[in-house]
Write a structure and sequence with these properties.
Elements (H helix, E strand, L loop, with lengths): L5 E5 L2 H8 L2 E8 L5 E7 L5 E6 L4 H15 L3 E10 L9 E9 L3 E4 L2 E4 L2 E4 L2 H13 L15 E8 L10 H9 L5 E3 L2 H10 L5 E10 L9 H25 L8 H4 L39 H17 L5 H20 L2 H17 L4 H15 L3
Parallel strand pairs: 1-4, 1-5, 5-12, 6-10, 10-11
Antiparallel strand pairs: 2-3, 3-4, 5-11, 6-9, 6-12, 7-8
Helix pairs in contact: 1-6, 2-5, 3-6, 8-9, 8-11, 9-10, 10-11
Pfam families: PNP_UDP_1
Protein name: Purine phosphorylase
């Protein structure tokens, strides 16, 4: 489980509850200025989540997102909630993931009329790629109620302003249609969260919205069940995304003195033959282990072969059941095929297969640690 939590913010209580249902043993964390977070692990996942409800509006979203960033130094920041659809082909219950966020209210008003001065924040390429991969996998809705239609996931711009749009003919609606015609959805917090992420340049940020109404047409009042369904759909996708984002940045610097210097938490000095190793240090961050250890292979192929042998031993010792063993072997076969290509794309496929294998053996720490070492080797190939 990643040491750095993923912060998830919501505006409404039903959005908050949809995320909270996915947390295991959440505990209360009070910020010094009064903001309440609940921190818990994701059910079936490897990351912790710090969850807060911050109310509506981009201003509060920006302020409290920055507060959460300073409090938790998170692996990623997500805003999850409801939105109104603006584009055709998006139906109630679908999920929209922002590729970029328009803060559309900026402008200049003079005698000639109103001239737009919008701001735009783009989602990082890495975050978008991970979200696209999850959407293509079609396994993310597994926790949704049986019988419910599987929602589609859409990627595109989201417009974030300071008003609730419930008209197709108002000057406000026409203005959005004229100037932000490519927007998929409209909401009220994404610009604030995007701004906070922009000010923390290395922080992955994502905005995930469930569609609870259509903002581009006149409709009867939305039935409450659609509000809950849209919130649940967004929460289901966001939970998988949070887990993947935390995993993607696992092991990166968290801001401590050792991490800021680029030093690893654990430094290994391994003596061979009659050599001896001594340690002199003023301050040591991380772990020191004294003893004799085999040197792990630095070739991915050799490391995979060793890992397979250890996997078989774990099965024979009863630490792995047959189904888990076969599932891990299937991922290792995919890893072998990816490694054989000897290309950067193959390196990415190798890393993905190993991450899946590591997830399957998370309950066997020694194997999981070995898989993590091979993942580090695989990243050098991508």
């Amino acid at each position: 489980m990643s040491r750095r939590p993923v912060v998830i913010l919501t505006a409404l209580d039903l959005e908050y509850q949809a995320i909270r249902e996915k947390l295991v043993d959440p505990s209360l964390h009070r910020h010094a200025q009064g903001t309440h977070f609940e921190v818990g692990g994701l059910a079936g996942g490897r990351c912790r989540v710090a969850l807060a409800q911050i109310g509506s509006g981009n201003q509060s979203a920006a302020v409290l997102a920055e507060r959460a960033i300073q409090e938790f130094a998170p692996a990623a920041l997500l805003f999850v909630g409801l939105a109104g659809a603006l584009a055709p082909g998006i139906v109630l219950g679908d999920v929209v993931v922002a590729t970029h966020v328009y803060a559309y209210h900026g402008g200049k008003s003079d005698d000639a009329g109103f001239k737009s001065r919008p701001r735009v924040w783009e989602t990082s390429h890495a975050v978008e790629q991970i979200a696209q991969h999850i959407a293509r996998g079609r396994s993310w809705p597994r926790d949704l109620p049986e019988g419910d239609p599987i929602p589609r996931v859409h990627f595109g711009p989201i417009a974030a302003g300071e008003v609730v749009l419930k008209s197709t003919d108002s000057s406000h609606a026409r203005w959005i249609d004229e100037r932000y015609n490519d927007a998929k959805a409209i909401e009220m917090e994404g610009a604030g969260v995007a701004q906070a992420g922009h000010l923390n340049r290395s922080l992955p940020v994502a905005v995930v919205r469930g569609i609870s109404n259509r903002a581009d047409r006149v409709e009867p009042p939305v039935h409450e069940r659609w509000l809950w369904r849209a919130a649940a759909n967004a929460a289901a996708f966001a939970a998988v995304l949070a887990d993947e984002l935390a995993d993607d940045v696992a092991g990166e610097p968290t801001g401590g003195p050792a991490e800021r210097s680029g030093m690893p938490e654990t430094v290994r000095n391994i003596a061979q033959g009659n050599a001896r190793v001594g340690v002199q240090a003023g301050t040591v961050y991380g772990g020191i282990r004294m003893g004799s250890e085999p040197i792990p292979p630095d070739d991915p192929g050799e490391a995979l072969a060793d890992f397979r042998a250890h996997l078989r031993r774990a099965r024979s010792d009863g630490h792995l059941d047959e189904d888990t063993y076969e599932a891990v072997e299937a991922e290792l076969t995919a890893a072998d095929e990816a490694l054989a290509t000897n290309t950067p794309q193959g390196g990415k496929k190798l890393t993905l297969a190993l991450k899946k294998a590591r997830g399957l053996i998370a309950d066997v720490p020694a194997l999981a640690a070995e898989a993590e070492n091979i993942i580090a080797l695989a990243r050098d190939l991508s």
